[in-house]
Amino acid sequence: MKKTIVCFDSSVLHKSRLDNVSKELLWNAAQIHMVKQGDHVLQAGQTCQHIWLVEKGACRAFYDHHHREVNTAFFFENSFVTNMKSLRNNEPSAYHLATTERSVLLRWHKDTLAALYEQSPAITAFGRERLELLAIAGEAHADWLKTHSPEERYQYLLTHQPELIQRVSLTQLSSYIGISRETLSRIRRRVL
């Protein structure tokens, strides 16, 4: 698939505060991938070598626990996706990254990004900010699970993240909230 200006116009790269030269450098270095629903972009045990941007579609992060998938994050359009620990420390990933919908992903190899960081302090600052946001989101989710009841979690998603309710299966959503699918069904009946 050819990268087009139409795709770029709606991209987080275009809307960023990067100067035009840095935007062009980052855009031109991206590889574009059409990914089928359910395909893994990173498997547990592999060492992460890339950062992805969801241009269209959705991805999830999950791990296997006693033959059950536990979802820890969902990423929709204009979200960056990676396993920071694996990418940074060059160690195997403890979890999977997979698409939940047919998706268009932009991808940068970590060596390509390192070269871009050398060329542009603006890209370095942009990358750091995006990785910090990923870390903050992961930390916020862990805190959220500890401090809210399952019904409060579901209510929060209804109000603040309806996209999750609309685009994620009940099984995946229940594990993300930290409850069984049956418990989620009971909560949904009470709330709706």
Automatic annotation (TrEMBL):
Keyword annotations from UniProtKB, A to Z: Kinase, Transferase
Domain of life: Bacteria
Protein name from the UniProt record: cAMP-binding domain of CRP or a regulatory subunit of cAMP-dependent protein kinases
InterPro entries given in the database record: cNMP-bd_dom (IPR000595), cNMP-bd_dom_sf (IPR018490), RmlC-like_jellyroll (IPR014710)
Keyword hit for Kinase: yes
Species of origin: Chitinophaga eiseniae
Keyword flag Transferase: yes
GO molecular function, one term: kinase activity
Start and end residues of each Cyclic nucleotide-binding domain: 35-119
Species classification: Bacteria, Pseudomonadati, Bacteroidota, Chitinophagia, Chitinophagales
